[in-house]
């Protein structure tokens, strides 16, 4: 068996086994079958208990509202940004902001947003400053609101860079500039050319990323814990609480909830497929109604306002984290801290260093292993066929909470729970598909003749592969490693479940600290969490830049 | 520099699905001899050259024997075929300098100093030694083509396969580059197979012109 084929099989085993066995391991307990804990009778009691659980319907509503809102906001923003700003001067800014936005861990972003939108947050302080009316924090339900609206909006903003990245990748398969010219020559405003000509071609290619956003938004736990409603919480948070209970029956209830969430997500995914067909299907009248300029100025204006709001939110989220991390005294309604200090850093230095080490080790470990697996995978002949790698994205399409419980039992039975190996494995389930997404287009479009020439010249296949193909693809590869690190750093549930309380990272710590009242400590941990992926993205940019600074064809 | 070789193609067939591109081709190319393969775009010329290197795309079926001095290349991996190939694009490695590109083709056993000397000597031979440290992207089309040829020759191939290497050059450069290629094939006595769709590319001393889809061979 060749190395690529081995890699293909190993990756299948590492990424699919946890998901498939994880879902089975969640499904069986949901029907009362959990032999290790002494439950042997198959029944639907736990589903009945779930329906009767106080607040269950509210949990479903909150999950639906926040999940749908997040998906809609992320998608609408992506459509607006591409339609209005593609190949304008703002486009360069968007492209250069993409890496830092992607690097921002979900939990850190949620904490930054918490610092902004809570009644005593930065926005309320600005409001108080300009209106001089609010001397004490207002009683606004800006976070933990009953229907999870804030959660949905913030999730949507966080998913935006992912959808932009995926759209950019999809744009490689559609001749955007030519189509834009054709559209404009037919009298269509660029915004309408995008909406009626380009997006209908992009949306089918965006199916997987959009479904991944749906799956993520419906099952997110860390952001929901920080910003979501608490009584009742979202279904995913409630399931996590049930899984964490000492009463075994509650864990079975959690399994039933996880399966319900899986079905709910599946329904929403089907809903998207139907909506996609309605939007861009052959019978879509709006595509051929001839409208080409109406409200185009309004679109432009809306695009610019949206752009500044999005940039403003991201920048202020980052700034608020930095300010809280170095503030010592920051009373309401002061806009800036009255006293700065690094005392909190020193107080937590030992813990911070330990967590930083653990987070780096896990992130780099999973990113490097993930990269090697993906490199092998992409060279496998099996991977060359269309849709051959579809299976790899399965973990992104299934709510994390719906298989993580079963996966934990797999780790327990392999004696891997609470070990580094177990945690890295749990991260690889996500790191591998994201690295593959980052690389697959580049490998597909790599001119194979370079490698043929190199092998003919050197007489050495392996040497040519590393010295020519990998070296020529160093930019995307280092970017993919950075993506892998960012994905690993962002993992909350996998670390929590696979780590079994024995492995903590900056993410798990930052989320648990978010429940506390001291924003300074939370700020310190959020900033430390942010540092890991940002430094990696910096290195991913600088290393190839310095290596290839002399070669103009190798610049981005 | 090169050991003289005789390239023999025996009962070569190439199919795209069920459609024959080449059927039962038998061909011998002597050292220094040039055979030209002509045909319209998309008829499978480049695929045929790739197949001689052992790279056959999935939709194609290739059969027959490729012998070099009686040694059967068919079962050898690409790395051991000792074939030199020039493509339509120069395919200079964009992450290496001109010197790096040339040194890549030198055998592994040669030490660093010797590599440098050999590369500079070869560049000096064509009056391009000043370009040694340059980024390939900063060279003109003609310079890039010449570097690509020198790189191929440095690897000491025993056969030369040319896949429309002149087609992207302007008229003047094209003519100069053709002369350079023919002078080297003669000097190193390389059996050469040229693929082209331009009659002007056919050298005066070519021994055969084959037309694709292959039916019969036509002498020049």
UniProtKB/TrEMBL annotation, chain A:
InterPro entries: MetI-like, MetI-like_sf. Keywords: Cell inner membrane, Cell membrane, Membrane, Transmembrane, Transmembrane helix, Transport. It is a multi-pass membrane protein. SUPFAM superfamilies: MetI-like (SSF161098). The chain crosses the membrane at residues 12-36, 56-86, 107-127, 147-171, 208-227, 252-275, 308-332, 352-378, 390-411, 423-443, 470-493, 524-548. Coiled coil: none annotated. Residues 56-274 form the ABC transmembrane type-1 domain. It is found in: Cell inner membrane. This is ABC transporter permease. The lineage of its organism: Bacteria, Pseudomonadati, Pseudomonadota, Gammaproteobacteria, Oceanospirillales.
UniProtKB/TrEMBL annotation, chain B:
Pfam families: ABC_tran. Keywords: ATP-binding, Nucleotide-binding, Transport. It comes from the Bacteria. GO terms for molecular function: ATP binding. Residues 7-219 form the ABC transporter domain. This is ATP-binding cassette domain-containing protein. It comes from Zooshikella harenae.
